[in-house]
Amino acid sequence: MATQKYAAIDLGAESGRVLVGSFDGAKLTLDEAHRFANTSVRVGNAGGETLHWDILRLWGDIQDGLGKAAAQQGELSGIGVDTWGVDFGLLDAQDQLLGNPVHYRDGRTDGMMDVAFDLVPRREIFASTGLQFMQLNTLFQMMALKNSPQLQAAKTLLLVPDLLNFWLTGEKATEYTIASTTQMLNAQSRQWDEELLGKLGIPSHFLTPIQGAGTQRGTLRESLANRIGAKGTPVYAPGCHDTASAVVSVPAGAGAPSGLSWAYLSSGTWSLMGLELEQPLINNQVAHYNFTNEGGLENTIRFLKNIAGLWLVQECRRAWLRGGHEYSYAELTEEAAGQTGGTSFINPDAPDFVAPSSMPEAIAAYCQRTGQTPPQSVGATVRCCLESLALKYRWTLERLEELSGQKIEVLHIVGGGTQNKLLSRLTADCLGRPVITGPIEATATGNILTQALARGELKNLSEIRQIVRASFPLETFEPKPSSRGAWDAAYEKFLALP
After folding, report:
1. Which of the four, 76, 267, 397, 486, has the lowest number of CB atoms within 10 Å?
2. Parallel, antiparallel, or unpaired: how do β-strands 156-159 and 28-37 relate?
3. 0.90 exceeded by the pTM?
4. Catalytic site residues?
5. Residues near 198 by beta carbon (within 8 Å), at least 6 away in sequence
């Protein structure tokens, strides 16, 4: 077949990028057209301050990236958008944005889970949605907005990737995988849970129809297409949740070299670790461990746990930069590699680390509070973060086996976090199982190959994963038996942490 060119607009919590994938039917290659920062903005108001996404600047960068992609690559066969989950924009009757989307780390959701549970019991919400309880979920953002003038004026709610798709095409819809992050979706029917929303007093008139991953949303608006030089280009909705697209590119399953039962870990600002299932897994044990059922391509279920991830290191780096010390991630990892391990640990998902003013100070205070020696250097602090993540991955893997009844023999790590080879090595040793890493640009890869699927160039998810294995280098980290005793001791200490 002739080589087709697809643009992936991939927005993460720290950065965004427009990549072009060239697909010849057997192999995919990626070229970066444009990369840009994604920085949040605090704005004062009558109630204090609100943390926003700078969505209009992101939209400007997206247009710049698409223009560069068209200029560099010529005609594009498709465009697809993926972003983080839960956040949204509200449009008025004239389709004007009523305000910059609010960041999921904003404090407006403080206490909103308890407000919701006073109206509908926690167990009932979980039985319906099957979603992990986090106060950042869209459901609790809506609870915080219930009496706001903005919500009263809203005619349409669009989650961030669907808002961008609307600006690209003029078509309004909600893609299934991104909808599944909201805790407003019924896990069984895979449609909006209007009964639950009604009990909570949340309106549903502004919700748009749900479409499956891998459908065409429309074509570029003519004015936009003329401006960037990509007239008539179709826009597809891949797995619009970035983790859904990342899981698409896990090089496992039928035909994989290992042939073993597997779990995945999408590693970046967040670590999302789980299994791919055919049906939601909802019971009291799942609720107790606070696991989640999110949507995937081909109506699969991403049964997983959200873990704080490399957010810990990213926030340490930002704090040190504010103090006048600039470190690259490579330098931080090298500093950590030179440290003796097993000194101090944190629970990555403790409330202390959700949005601290200084992550290194929060880590030191947590260690002090739990009777441990706080890290005494930059390298020791990063080592503490990475070892703690590896220990949380072990706990999560054990729970996945317990809940699913499956024996997991290998962990696939995909995404930008695979560039941190120290974390991959620590994870293999801590888990006592092989870790296979790659591809790095997992989300964009899944986005692009889902577009190819929608266009009829691939048949199914299994074929997508064959293309991934043929296109990108993978690296295997085998666990060192000699380290097992030290990790077992560390795990006992970790399990005792609050």
Report:
1. 486
2. unpaired
3. yes
4. 242
5. 204
